[in-house]
Each structure stands twice: as C-alpha cells, then as structure tokens.
Amino acid sequence: MLMLAAGCGTGSSGTGGSEASPQHVYVQALDKARKSLFQGDLAYDDPRHMHLEAGQQTPFHITVSGGWRNSTNAHGHSSVDVGAIVGVRLRCHGDAVCHSDSSVRQPVLTKEDRAQWIWWITPRTAGPLPLSITVTTYLQNSDTVLREKTIPLEARAKAEPRGFFTIVWDWLRTGWGVFVGFTTGVGAVWGTWSLIAGAVRRLRRSQASADDSPEPDPEDTPPPVDEPRGTQ
Question: Coil, helix or strand for 39?
C-alpha cells in the first residue's frame, strides 16, 4: 500500500512537471512582455501655455514616441513604458468635458514608432481646472495591463468673452436702471419739497392771521357814558 501510494504520488508529480499549467504559461508570458518594455517619451501640451475659455473647445495634443524627441517649451515631457500597445486618456476632474476622436490604443513597438492623440477640452465655467493624463501599456490586444502611469496637471479657464450685442444690452439695461432710479429719486425729492413748502405756507398764513387783529365794528362799540355835570 505504501509503495502504491508512493508510486501514485511520483506519477502525479511527474505529470505536473512535464505539462505546465495555463496559469504558469500566463505568468511567464506576462513577465516576458514586461521585460521587453523600454523607456519612451510622452510629450503633451503644457496647460500653463494654453488659452482655455469657458464654453469653447480647445485641442490638447499628446504624443508617445519610442525615443525621446526634442520639442518646444510649450510642451511637457515625461518618460513612459513603451514597446507594446499604448493607451492614452485625458481626464477632466473639474467643471469641464474632455473627449477625443482618436483611437484610445495605438502601437508603439519600436524606437521609431510614434503615436498621437488629440483631445478636446471644453470648460463649462471659469476658474482652476485639474487634469490628468494616464498612459497604459497592454499585453498585446488584451485588457491585461503591463504598466500604467498617471500625470496630474493643473489648468485655468478664463471667462467667456462678451459679444458686442451683449455689451450693448448690458449698457442699455444699466442705463435704464440708472434712469429709473434717477427719476424715482427726483420724484421723491420733489414730493418731499412740495410737502415742506406747503407746510411753510400754512405756518406763515397762521402767523399772519394771529398778528393782524381786525378793527372793531362801530355798531359793536358800547355807547359813551355821560359825565356828571358840576354844580352851578
């Protein structure tokens, strides 16, 4: 019994050693793919040099190259892992919308390869706008991630410029408000002045009536008293 059990165990071990499991094959392929990656270059528009305006679409260019490329100061740079299928996403974390018409995944397999993406940023309101770029390398065409890197960015959107008719309408509306306020104020002052003037006139009339006493009527004068005559 012991020999049988030992024999069975040896046979099972031999079978497992001769045939690799699917999990082992997958791990080996994943490890090999990661070791084959090399450093590439990520170049992107620098948000500090962009003119973002609320309500307006602005393009945002991203390039991933197999080798480092010299570009202007208006671009940011970062090293990323390439040598596989590369996916790039731009995320707007503030009050804005980011979308792209480019393919999310593109191959960057050699040092001569170069992939480009154009994303569109549409701020809804003015103010600070946090952004982030995420670069992901995939195992062939699968969803298995080999490497991933996220770069935070900070942009600022300006207020939407006002058009000519908007400025004229604001001017007319402000002018009408000032005119209405002025006329209302003048009317209130005029009414107050009229009340004061009327009160002064009434006061003067009452004072004049008190100072000017009327002359006595002869009919109302009592008859004179006869003086006593002296003794003759």
Answer: strand
